[in-house]
Design brief:
- The structure is a single chain.
- The protein is globular, with a radius of gyration of 13 Å.
- A hairpin with a 5-residue loop joins strand 1 and strand 2.
- It has one domain.
- With 95 residues, the protein is of the alpha+beta class.
- The chain is built from two helices and four strands; from the N terminus they run βββααβ.
Length: 95
């Protein structure tokens, strides 16, 4: 199963590299797009959950790294939740 990483730029300008165990995440997030924080969270969760389910279908169990990535994204996003107009940019997908 081809894993992929994606780079996000948080509202404060910091970048973070994130992990997905499947390229299906690319169907949920688009490079160069600025997402409102809540929309980014929804799309990242949906994409990483879909990736987790692909791993489960293929190997009979889910991917702990996908779940951990969701948790890490949620924790980071919480630091910006009180800032109106916060957006997250998808900078890149890479292997």
């Amino acid at each position: 199963m081809p894993e992929i990483r994606f780079r996000v730029r948080w509202p404060d300008g910091r970048t973070e590299d994130c992990y997905s165990p499947s390229t299906i995440i690319t169907e949920h997030l688009e490079v160069g797009t600025d997402y409102p924080l809540g929309q980014f969270l929804d799309k990242a969760r949906d994409g990483l959950n879909a990736a987790n389910e692909r791993v489960r279908a293929r190997f009979g169990m889910g991917c702990a790294q996908a779940i951990n990535q969701i948790i890490a994204i949620e924790q980071r996003a919480a630091t910006y939740s009180g800032t109106p107009g916060s957006t997250v940019r998808i900078e890149d997908f890479y292997q």
